[in-house]
Amino acid sequence: MTAPVIAVDGPAAxxxxxxxxxxxxxxxxxxLDTGLLYRATGRRVLDAAGDxxxxxxxxxxxxxxxxxxxxxxxxxxxEADRAASAVAAIxxxxxxxxxxxxxxxxxxGAVLDGRDxxxxxxxxxxxxxxxxxxxxxxxxxxxxxxxxxxxxxxxATVATEMAARDAQDSARAVAPLRPAEDAVxxxxxxxxxxxxxxxxxxxxxxxxx
Length: 209
Hints:
Elements: E1 5-9, H1 16-27, E2 31-33, H2 35-47, H3 55-63, H4 78-88, H5 91-108, E3 110-114, H6 117-121, E4 127-132, H7 135-148, H8 155-171, E5 184-187, H9 193-208
Helix pairs in contact: 1-9, 2-3, 2-4, 3-5, 4-8, 7-8
């Protein structure tokens, strides 16, 4: 039997990354945070003092990505969030990164998390989860994450920026953020990490069965 591809989509700070990593470890599958591809692309554009909204500049950055770009320590935070959302709305960027993501998943199966895995990258995936939570809960999680990394941040500012990114990701013409029609929606607003993982694992095993 071919190893499965498990798609985990959802908005920022819903917990999808943590869930996807734990699912991959539990099931013995490779893991890919596809959001890092867009974050690294945005960061490359910023490094060159370019505009992340410029298609030619962003596409060139996407085509020049190397594995080392995904290991950078500056791929998180408000500036990186904004740049990632901007480059992700550009069709040429998404096209440049699509084959890379598909090749990763098709080699040995994988758990991939992102925003369009179940709708665009692997619409044929046997398991699709859409992990979400209220904006308030997600903003609080991201705020605590930033503080934990020593980044000064105001909760209200984090919430405003998160709402703006949600709107941009959901309204973009190419691969908008939305659940696939056959995705199982998992709301983690009232769940701690262990409860969310238990629920996700049960859903995955049920679908794979």
